[in-house]
Design a protein that fits this description.
elongated, Ferritin
Length: about 140
């Protein structure tokens, strides 16, 4: 059985998701390396863990996109490292908010076109992105 073909709109959305996942995987990993201060020490391992999860998301999305007949992008969305831990975490939280909105849109588009496999994949990824958002939000809270 041949791979199903997806709409150009869905393929474009999947490539946007890949660009975003590559962006944050690099961004969070470099933030893990560049952290400073006591608070940075407390979050550096979490940044590395999330960076690795994001790269796994990029891989899963790229595999799906390839199956659907698209060509995965290799270009990340713009990367922002920040100069302070607060800047880093604030940007990271915003990036997760963007992902949550984007992935809900992808789920809706996939369901609309009858692509339950893509919808399932993004429901799983959405759960992780919501957890990442919660982590970054919690790390920004004052004691």
């Amino acid at each position: 059985m041949a791979a199903r073909k997806a709409s150009p709109e869905l393929l474009d959305l999947l490539n946007q998701a890949i660009a975003r996942e590559i962006q944050v995987s690099v961004q969070y990993m470099w933030q893990h390396v560049l952290w400073k201060g006591v608070r940075g020490f407390a979050v550096k391992d979490e940044l590395k863990k999330i960076a690795i999860e994001e790269m796994k998301h990029a891989e899963a999305i790229a595999e799906r996109l390839n199956y659907l007949g698209g060509i995965p992008t290799t270009k990340p969305s713009p990367i922002f490292l920040g100069s302070t831990l607060a800047e880093m975490l604030t940007t990271d939280r915003k990036d997760e908010e963007t992902a949550i909105m984007m992935y809900r849109n992808i789920i809706d588009e996939a369901v609309k076109t009858g692509d339950e496999t893509t919808a399932f994949l993004f429901r799983e990824i959405l759960k992780a992105e919501e957890e990442h958002h919660d982590i970054f939000s919690s790390l920004l809270e004052k004691d």
